[in-house]
Amino acid sequence: MENKNAWEKYPEGNREKVLDFAEEYRKFISSCKTERECVTEFVERARAAGFKDLKELIENKTVLKSGDKVYYNQMGKSIALFVMGKQPLEQGMNILGAHVDSPRIDIKQVPLYEDTQMALLDTHYYGGVKKYQWVTLPLALHGVFAKKDGSVVPFSIGEKTEDPVFGISDLLVHLSGDQMEKKASKVIEGEKMDILIGSIPAELAGEDKEKTKDLVKANMLAILEKMYGIKEEDFLSAEIEAVPAGAARDYGFDRSMIMGYGHDDRVCAYPSFQAILNTKDPEKTCVCLLVDKEEIGSVGATGMHSRFFEDAVAEILELSGEYSGIKVRRAMRNSKMLSSDVSAAFDSNYPETMEKKNAAYFGMGLVFNKYTGSRGKSGSNDANAEYMAELRHILDKNNVTFQTSELGKVDQGGGGTIAYILANYGMQVIDCGVAVLSMHAPWEIISKVDLYEALLGYEAFFREA
Predict the structure, then answer these.
(1) What CATH number does domain 104-244 carry, 2.30.250.10, 3.40.50.620, 3.40.30.10, 2.70.70.10?
(2) Is 80 exceeded by the pLDDT of residue 126?
(3) Main-chain phi, psi angles of 121, to 5 degrees
(4) pTM (2 decimals)?
(5) What distances in angstroms separate CA 137 from CA 8, 131, 133, one per listed residue?
(6) What are the tens digits of pLDDT across the range 230-242?
(7) Which of 147, 115, 138 is nearest to 217 (CA)?
């Protein structure tokens, strides 16, 4: 079978919708580089579009009805958005599920130290990264400091042109003989990924200077206190992430692509969110589920293994006057889901890793991965053929360009998504997202037309699944 290039549907002079949506997305990933920032942005946009906070509706005992729009914010890191359908909830929902966390460098709880009159932050990488890709890059610091008085101080520095940036040093090539003999996984080791943040000592005099052991560290703390009111002990209850500094950029002479940080999985989260905003009076309740912690196994209270989504469904049934334990289970079991997560794009520099007939390509539209997992499909959801046939019908009917793929050659490796977790409820689930080059690198690449086809496909799924 030969897939058609989606750009053929949008000849020059007729690409405004594709390019406008891509520009909206480019600005989004340039400003929202953490899961917290993504959820904060989505909450603001959802409220402007008429979505109501489920927690407030519970408190006010508001009765829900068809057409109502509701969101549930889980600890500021995950969000579920519902547009209530005409059919009873127990008949199932149409769900788009993506994640908003991305591989990064986390700052440890006791991070700040001085060595040879240089101040550094101790780190712990998050998610699957090639550690050597993160050295000598300009990094920005994003996150929050939660203080003992209950206040939370947002923190972001390194993104504005006038901001300083930070980074992890690497060994000069002249002295790297031993380093170059190491395996790629050992060239840069985790405990050597500390971030350099300053080198000027504090200007102290007399007794203060004598009793201050680390003057450069003291100067960094003075700067932080002046700028943010932060003391060293506040790092104990902080969540600070180091991410590549700078905006996402158009890529290629034809500007057909975007290079940016965090395409995995915000390139699927953003069209999923836009699709729920565009949904009006659906037959079945439609849900956009954007979660945290996928990159480290979907664990914790904000990951998909948490029961916050199931609990939100139960609360909505209660406000609809229909709650019972069996109806919650039926609502989950009767649902259909697209696990909107990225797929690996075919890379002509590394053709040996993929089998060409079953690979995803730039420009060929939305990607379906019937199964993920590794080698013998271990850890895979492996969707039913009947469900794939139904989705083919919906997309062909709506002129959405799509392709199918697997994650590399059988013995090459593999990966997973949140698909199998929702499938545990008995619902129909398949992975369906956008192809990405250089996945999990600090800077990843996507095709603008694939992003737009994802939006069209997700909207069609909400309308007709």
Answers:
(1) 2.30.250.10
(2) yes
(3) -115, 130
(4) 0.95
(5) 37, 12, 8
(6) 999 999 999 999 9
(7) 115
